[in-house]
Amino acid sequence: MEKKTKRSKRWVKPIEKPKKYAGVLLAADFWFGRVIENPKEIKKILIKAAKEAKNISLEITIHKFQPQGITGVVLLAESHIFISTWPEINYVAIDIFSCGEKAMPEKALQYLKKEFKPKKVVIRKIKRGVLK
Amino acid sequence: MEKKTKRSKRWVKPIEKPKKYAGVLLAADFWFGRVIENPKEIKKILIKAAKEAKNISLEITIHKFQPQGITGVVLLAESHIFISTWPEINYVAIDIFSCGEKAMPEKALQYLKKEFKPKKVVIRKIKRGVLK
Q1: Engineered SS bond to B23: which of A7, A31, A114, B128, CB 3.0-4.6 Å?
Q2: Smallest Cα–Cα separation from B108: which of B32, B31, B45?
Q3: What are A42-82's pLDDT values in tens digits?
Q4: CA–CA distance, B11 with A93 (Å, rounded to integer)
Q5: What is the C-alpha separation between B80 and A72, in angstroms, rounded?
């Protein structure tokens, strides 16, 4: 909790210029794909997703529900990636919040698509901390 | 990680009916409010926010950056609440993802406004897992 991790420069750079934004949130709904319920696999996937987006993983938390469903989040030096699987309706919710204009949340998303193989995907891209 | 927590019924109920959605994501930008940088205080705030929304807290992860900034997430039986403070621009990003139509993310938001006292708030409400 008190590790001396510097926040990524991505947090700060874009806001030095006017009319910029602090980060991007990709809110993705994956439907009818692979059902992944193994905590170790979800952990591996979160770390890989962070890496693909050139983010630095800080802390990972996973929680397995009974009888089914798993939810996990990796905190990043550039924000976070959240996953929650919902096998009962074959649905996976994914949030990728990345900071700065150079963030590559799409890369993480691309990788997650490969892992979960959804037949249908709904994505919303939301700019966060828009400076006017 | 292997606690026998049942996922909240909120995850399942609304999807039994057609044309419903699985959850709601409130993406909030708080500007020019209180700067809270104490991990213990952030932890307390996350727990209280979850409680206000009648959610059950499962796991909390907080990460303090050097020299400033703090990011934290509480996983819920009904999804998650994420906070990231950004003192350098007096900005706080908050995501409240709650499941089911009976979820009360607004209550959590109301409480968080009281704590952070932002002078300007930008909120986006996004329905997640919309069943057509």
Answers
A1: B128
A2: B45
A3: 999 999 999 999 888 999 999 999 999 999 999 998 899 99
A4: 12
A5: 9
Q: What is the 3-state secondary structure (H, E, C) of A4-15?
A: CEECCHHHCHHH
Residue pLDDT, tens place only, B10-24: 665 554 454 588 899
Q: Which site among A82, A98, A130 would you substitute to test the B interface, given the most B Cβ atoms closer than 10 Å to its Cβ? A: A82
Residues of A in contact with B20 (CB under 8 A): none
Closest CA to A77 of A95, A102, A54: A54
In whole angstroms, how large is the CA radius of gyration of chain B? 15
Residue A49 has, within 13 A of its CA and on its CB side, a CA count of 34
**Average pLDDT, stretch B61-82?**
94
Question: Are A3 and B63 a contacting pair at CB < 8 A?
Answer: yes
Residue A37, chain B, CB below 8 Å: the answer is no
